[in-house]
Amino acid sequence: MPLDPSFRPEARGLYVAVEALGREHDAADSALPSELPESGVGEEGALLQLAPHVLGGACRLDRPDMLAHMDPPTPWLTWALTLWNARLNQNLLHPATAPFARDAEHRVVRWLAPAFGMTGGHMTPGSTLANLTALWVARDAAGARRVVASEAAHLSIRKAAHVLGMKFEALPTDQQQRLDPAGSGDLADACLVLTAGTTIAGAIDPLTPPFRAAWTHVDAAWAGPLCLSNRYRERLAGIECADSVAVSAHKWLFQPKDSALVFFRDHERASAALSFSGGYLAAANVGLAGSHGAMAVPLLGLLLAWGRSGLAQRIERCMANAQRLADAIESSSELELFAPMATGVTVFRGQSAGARERIAQLVPATFTTARIGAESWTRCVSANPLADMDLILGRLGL
After folding, report:
1. Hey, what domains does the chain have and what are their CATH numbers?
2. What CA–CA distances, in Å, run from 265 to 21, 141, 176?
3. CA-CA distances (angstroms) from residue 125 to 246, 250, 261, 292?
4. 317 exposed, middle or buried (CB, 10 Å; 0-12, 13-18, 19+)?
5. With contact defined as beta carbons under 8 Å apart, do 335 and 377 qualify?
6. What is residue 26's predicted lDDT score, i.e. its pLDDT?
7. φ, ψ for residue 35 (rounded to 5)?
8. For strand 285-286 and strand 368-372, is the pairing parallel, antiparallel, or unpaired?
């Protein structure tokens, strides 16, 4: 049987794909068929038809006026390694077909877990599943029967409790959206979820609460990587006391979606609760996902390329941008700052008609809107280390 060229490296086609990354595109330049075509246009033809839509029809997260909504631009190294992953299509469920891909995941977990005081863990396709995995262990390994979190906790916590058949209870927050431990009651049968970087305000719950739960989980999807920064790690002091921690790699670890990690202080205990075997498996399947790809490879590459200090440098740049914005808002008579900036999230609103109009022109391209209680605020998340703060502040009239 002759070789099918569609499964062989094609230098010309790959060049077309890479070259398209550096050009501007307009979706009006190409019309896609409304029905499945009987005959294809070929690989290169498909690239040329799709480029205006895929590349031209997307929000460019690396724009200088973009702070990025918790979704950062990705370094070019991750594009290349994602291409390698697509070429190989490794399945980590089977050690024989993905020996290095499995090692890559073990390695990045081993490198990162100590920063959070954890001993191990694994990767998941997003922090929603990382949170679900942690609550699953809390139920089956620690006997937790209910989930207690702040009213500002991410909706994935409520969803996970629902999926696991656990009662969910929301605790009130203070004026800065941090969990208020008062009135929590006895938590001996509960999984307490603390948030490090709430979605709306970026608040950090007290990570050393004055009580002990059956299991304590920290949802550090957003702010967790601050633990890698010598300058900011103290803001997450106490995270090492948790039983589990979730971190989103496709936020401040600058990874392509979908990529996250769940860490455990007692990894062996957690793995025992999460392990399932089958007659077709050479090794136990740990966690919720069955077949899953080599999402650790781009993360491993970035950690090798940048090291801890290089990663911290980009995170600290984002934090400095957010602080500069918060300081400018606080000194303005036309704007009101919701709370001091804690984790790169700045929440504010206009007090004059002119300020509100300028803000409206920047939503949703640069900022988003959010509701805290009955009030509407503007939310800005600093995830783009390439942001031009002079440009953004100028557009706000600051």
Report:
1. 5-58 (no CATH), 77-304 (3.40.640.10), 308-395 (3.90.1150.170)
2. 42, 13, 29
3. 12, 10, 8, 9
4. middle
5. no
6. 84
7. -130, 160
8. unpaired
Query: What is the reported pLDDT for 150?
Result: 96
What pLDDT is stored for residue 364 in this prediction? Answer: 82
pLDDT in the model for residue 215: 97
Token code pair at residue 224: 């967790």
pLDDT means over runs of 10, the chain (398 residues): 84 91 83 93 94 91 87 96 95 89 96 98 96 98 97 97 97 93 86 97 93 94 98 98 98 96 97 87 83 94 98 98 97 96 97 92 87 94 96 93
Number of Cβ atoms within 10 Å of the Cβ of 349: 18
Residue 326 DSSP symbol = H
- Taking phi first (over 0 means left), then psi (-120 to 50 degrees means alpha), and beta for anything else, what does residue 122 get? beta
Contact by Cβ (8 Å): 296, 105: yes
pLDDT score, position 1? 64
Q: How far is CA 158 from the centre of its chain?
A: 18
First to last CA, the chain: 68
Contacts of 263 (CB under 8 A, 6+ apart): 109, 112, 113, 116, 118, 120, 121, 244, 245, 246, 247
